[in-house]
Design goal:
Layout: H1 10-15, H2 20-32, H3 34-41, E1 55-58, E2 65-68, E3 73-74, H4 76-80, H5 82-88, E4 92-97, E5 106-109, H6 110-126, E6 134-138, H7 143-155, E7 158-161, H8 168-178, E8 182-186, E9 189-191, E10 194-196, H9 198-206, E11 214-218, E12 232-234, H10 235-240, E13 251-252, E14 256-261, E15 271-275, H11 277-290, E16 298-301, H12 308-320, E17 324-328, H13 339-347, E18 351-354, H14 356-364, H15 368-371, E19 380-384, H16 390-400, E20 407-410, E21 444-447, E22 453-454, E23 458-464, E24 474-475, H17 479-487, E25 494-502, E26 508-513, E27 517-520, E28 523-526, H18 527-535, E29 540-550, E30 554-563, H19 571-584, E31 593-596, H20 610-617, H21 634-641
The chain binds adenosine-5'-triphosphate (ATP) and magnesium ion.
GO molecular function: acetate-CoA ligase activity; AMP binding; ATP binding; metal ion binding
Keywords: Acetylation, ATP-binding, Ligase, Magnesium, Metal-binding, Nucleotide-binding
Enzyme class: ligase
């Protein structure tokens, strides 16, 4: 198979912060002289007390520990706000686009944001919140969510954001897990014209959280919500009584910044803990280089703040870099499938960063919605969250970007704090579907199941050989689980849980979770490959493949397929798809079962939960595991009801 290669456009290479030669030189130094490299990179941050030690890390059980810039002190909110005031206080920090295009947008300057953060920090302080306390944030995509995060960081409180859309149960579980006594929320959220009863969810959750004594409620839709006397405070009334002066707390580099629970694609979510100094350097550096970001550019990351992408690339990265970040409350399909691109035109967005799941959903609606907009302002497109299959990549590149914008397919995890493997727009020739090359300081390696290194081209388990500043430091409340989950499978390495292929050019191709590899008659296959083949068929919008028990082959292939709008999902199509996959990959990949599915079970961040589909494939509906992070639990019932019986 000949892979398409898209060289860096000449005009891009000319002006880029990092071109190919510079990438090679910087990368080489970052791994041969990490201390020197990171000492220099850390200068992008304003330290209160400079650090003397750069890196003290070991992945081995005997002296296990990860710490960066250990004796330095800083405040990340001051880095995101205060230090910009003198030079760009009147620049726009946040542009907020509401759910409905007929409602007014908001533009917030650095000066205004700084003031809002100080007042809100003082409000939390007046309720007894102090350094080290955990603050649960359950807010929609509104600027106050960023205010809340930065206010926590300012006073040294640890924020834990829970997707505004998770159930009361999921919320309660997270409040209890990190033992927080304060919850920040809104009366309601808005998504695609629908109201989400946030305050009511909080009230229900708090029946199981006796430790919570304060709830601060933002009036967002203006709905009438009951307020508990002594416990609940109206956001704006509370803030109005506070002073706009709030000195940033001096934080040690290794003091905790936030807890964030993983998506739960593979099991019970883990409370990932990130600390201050290393994360600040990492979020700022990756944001600048991955997007070739210069202040003044309008930058839009369409991720929710309830996801790590929203932490590093809606709030911390762009604001530390003095950027203008767009926050969008709504969904890509409301009022119609042009919405994303209309927003791009409205604000002249130059950099757009989104998830394959949204792109596939939009692709399904056809090109006209895209073509109805200009998109001339776009310069870089980003992708995150899942492998982007070549079909969706091409659509993104050719239809959305009109062949003009490099796509940065960024591989990373909640655990990694920021982008780990990615092309750089001015440095890396693109291969559709490949996350390509490691970020500075990242040493990816492929190991076989026995832990033996695979050199050159090959496929194996993706591990990272050395620490990077943005690495998570522990699982909240369970340091042993941290070590066991990530460092015990392959001794001396950070294990990502993902499978990966490296080609002759040293490009990395994420093949999916190791758990998702299936073994058909002795042939090991990544489910992503079969899914990509299915999605490449013009009638298919989305596909998820899992293994199922098979008497002869050991494992058979069970495919869940969502068709494009207006396609008849019938026996003819089933036969056509089977033939198609045989032709695309080979007879070994022939699906044993194809189930047409109006929707697939996904996490709120849009990842397909294959562990649930595996259970359906196995005809075992009794133990579906943790389903608290599902975006729409009813999807599962539908799949169970309509499960075809294999011939
Ligand atoms: P849990 O760890 O609880 O199962 P999760 O892994 O879904 O949840 P995240 O940290 O949000 O939680 O997701 C990280 C995973 O997403 C990666 O391990 C990888 O499988 C996938 N991923 C992210 N970006 C990409 C990408 N660009 N290409 C391929 N896979 C990606
Ligand atoms: Mg994970």
């Amino acid at each position: 198979m000949v892979e398409a290669l898209y060289p860096v456009p000449v005009e891009w290479a000319k002006d880029a912060l990092v071109d190919e030669a510079r990438y090679n030189e910087m990368y080489a130094r970052s791994v041969s002289d990490p201390d020197g490299f990171w000492r220099d990179q850390a200068q992008r941050i304003d330290w209160i007390k400079p650090f003397s030690v750069v890196k003290q890390t070991s992945y081995h059980e005997a002296d296990f520990g990860i710490s960066w810039f250990t004796d330095g002190t800083l405040n990340i909110a001051a880095n995101a706000l205060d230090r910009h005031l003198a030079t760009r206080g009147d620049d726009i920090a946040i542009i907020w686009e509401p759910d409905s295009p007929s409602d007014p947008e908001r533009r917030i300057t650095y000066r205004q944001l700084h003031e809002d953060v100080c007042r809100f920090a003082n409000l939390m302080k007046s309720r007894g919140v102090k350094k080290g306390d955990r603050v649960t944030i359950y807010l929609p995509m509104v600027p106050e969510a960023a205010v809340a995060m930065l206010a926590c960081a300012r006073i040294g409180a640890i924020h834990s954001i829970v997707f505004a859309g998770f159930s009361p149960d999921a919320l309660a579980g997270r409040i209890v897990d990190c033992d927080s006594s304060i919850v920040l929320t809104a009366d309601q959220g808005l998504r695609g014209g629908k109201k989400v009863p946030l305050k009511a969810n909080v009230d229900e959750a708090l029946e199981d959280c006796p430790g919570v004594d304060t709830v601060i409620v933002l009036a967002h839709t203006g709905a009438d919500v009951p307020m508990a006397e002594g416990r609940d405070i109206d956001w704006r009334t509370g803030v109005a009584q506070q002073s706009a002066d709030c000195a940033p707390e001096e934080m040690n580099a290794e003091d905790p910044l936030f807890i964030l629970y993983t998506s739960g694609s593979t099991g019970k979510p883990k409370g990932v803990l990130h600390t201050t100094g290393g994360y600040a350097v990492w979020a700022s550096m990756t944001h600048e280089y991955v997007f070739d970001y210069r202040p003044g550019q309008i930058y839009w990351c369409a991720a929710d703040i309830g996801w790590v992408t929203g932490h590093s690339y809606v709030v911390y990265g762009p604001l530390m870099n003095g950027g203008t970040t767009v926050m969008f409350e709504g969904v890509p399909s409301f009022p119609d499938a042009s919405r994303f691109w209309q927003i791009v035109d409205k604000y002249q967005v130059e950099i757009f960063y989104g998830a394959p799941t949204a792109l596939r959903a939009l692709m399904r609606e056809g090109d006209d919605y895209v073509k109805a907009t200009s998109r001339k302002s776009l310069k870089v497109l980003g992708s995150v969250g899942e492998p982007i299959n070549p079909e969706a990549w091409s659509w993104y590149y050719n239809v959305v970007g009109e062949g003009r914008c490099p796509i940065v397919d960024t591989w990373w995890q909640t655990e990694t704090g920021g982008v780990m493997i990615t092309p750089l727009p001015g440095a890396t020739a693109l291969k559709p579907g490949s996350a390509s090359k490691p970020m500075f300081g990242v040493r990816p390696m492929l190991l076989d199941n026995d832990g033996k290194e695979i050199t050159g081209a090959g496929e194996g388990c993706l591990v990272i050989a050395d620490s990077w500043p943005g690495q998570m430091r522990t699982v909240w409340g369970d340091h042993e689980r941290f070590f066991q989950t990530y460092f015990s499978t392959f001794k001396g390495y950070y294990f990502t849980g993902d499978g990966c292929r490296r080609d002759e050019d040293g490009y990395y191709w994420i093949t999916g979770r190791i758990d998702d590899v299936i073994n058909v008659s002795g042939h090991r296959m990544g489910t992503a490959e079969i899914e990509s083949a299915l999605v490449a068929h013009h009638k298919v919008a989305e596909a998820a493949v899992v293994g199922m028990p098979h008497e002869i082959k050991g494992q058979g292939i069970y495919a869940f397929v969502t068709t494009n709008a207006g396609v008849e999902a019938d026996e003819d199509l089933r036969r056509e798809l089977i033939k198609w996959v045989r032709h695309e990959i080979g007879p070994i990949a022939t699906p044993d079962v194809i189930q047409f599915a109006p929707g697939l079970p996904k996490t709120r961040s849009g990842k397909i939960m294959r562990r649930i589909l595996r259970k359906i494939g196995e005809n075992d509906f009794s133990s579906l595991g943790d389903t608290s992070t599902l975006a729409d639990p009813s999807v599962v019932d539908n799949l169970i009801e309509n499960r075809p019986q294999p011939a």
